[in-house]
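Quick one:
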Amino acid sequence: MIIGSGAGGGMAAWALTRLGVKCLMLEAGPVVDWEADRKLVSAYDLPFRGLGKPGRFPHITQAGEFDANMWADEQQNPYTYPKDDPYYWVRIRALGGKTLRWGRASWRLSDYEFKCKDHDGEGDNWPVSYQDLAPFYDRVEPILRVSGRNEGWGQMPDGKLLADESRDSESIARFREAAGKLGVPTTKPRRATGTLAASTNLLLPDAMATGKLTIVGNAVVRELSVDANTGLVNGAHYVDRRSGQEFHVPAKRVIVSASTLESTRLLLNSRSPRHAAGLGNSSGVLGHYLFDQFYIKGVVSAVVPQARGGRASRTMMGGAGYIPRFVNVKAGDKGVAGKRDFLRGYAYDFSSGGTPGVGQLGTWGEPMWKALADVRGAGFGMTTMGEVLPKRENHVRINPDVKDAWGIPVLHIQQKYGENEFKMAKHSEEMAVAMCKAAGFEVVASHAQMVPPGESIHELGTCRMGADAKRSVLNGWNQSHDVKNLFVVDGSAFVSGGSQNPTLTLMALALRASEYLAEGMKRGEL
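Output:
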């Protein structure tokens, strides 16, 4: 049984069915027919002109009226958090999960992440190394058709990429040259290519074609059931999302991939006499060490002077790039030398050819319109993605006093950024300004304000892997230390996350864990 159909669940289905394993997939949302269930409408035909009903999605800044039925409605799917520390939990309930709207950034982690404690003494190492996962990265990237450039940098491992040979615009070239003189490496983005690049068109069709996969939509899983004698998982209780009818489905093995927080919520709600603190939680670690990547949207906004006044030609403006972590790296790797007052590092996305926001122009009325016309298409912007240190106090737990629309107790989520993140954020602002000025750009605004925890949609941890069963929930194969027929293959397994988008790593881990499970079945061990 596979619970969830996104990056991890989709990859598990793809891998297991290819090996001849019959799978049942439970998905909390509908199985969408993208041809029959969508239509093209104009903004003026919508009640709120495409912006959406105010207050419907208070914590999903990405949602709009055009796709409102895709996102998990907080009225039906509530959660709680401390009054002064909101958490932005972004969820999609539909076949394909969040791969339906992911940004397709596809970066490998390195041993700066997998062996982070060896590097700076903070936190915990993963029970796997980059060498362990590299063969699985090699196989996932061609499925996603990831484009980019191999640079040979230790903090950004090379991959099996479609070579991006696109030329830089003049403004991008100027920025890259200026950054290089400051010791900052730049490269092209790495993105999954093709239309959508989601589980629903890259993984699940192949799995269905084997005849080994059955998908049940609108199945909101309440809890996993456990054999009272063995303590092993033996099925799942779920509620039909539309009718409210309850079902139980037996299973010999269960893969949970409902996304980080939903998976942990499910395990915490799956209490039994043998698992009183939650399924597989003998360590007491389940729910702890929640983290993500922090984002600073528009850390700097600049103008290319030569593009003012309508001179933003296609050769001068346009294009995008990426800066990997470049601080706190080893001497042999590409990066800026010097000791920092914070641990780990951050990355940037940058792009050319936009227009600065009205609020950044410092004027109103007729002068504002003139200023806006002058800088139209002449903008250069950057966003920071920073590593967050996993801390035990950042955690989730069940709030028994609040239930969702199907009567299932919800999560209480508690995460705050700490001193290390604030120092890193400030440094990223200073470096962004320095690079833009070195390129000859006019900086019109900069800031170091991180978005609230969760808004990056890269929530990780809470069901972490580890070599020590007393300090982790899963082993190095994404297998429960306590329940050998239970696997968790989503971001909840992460021990650290770096500044990289996690989806590629999540899928590589899911592929590795699924093949390990299939081998265990073949040997009669699972």
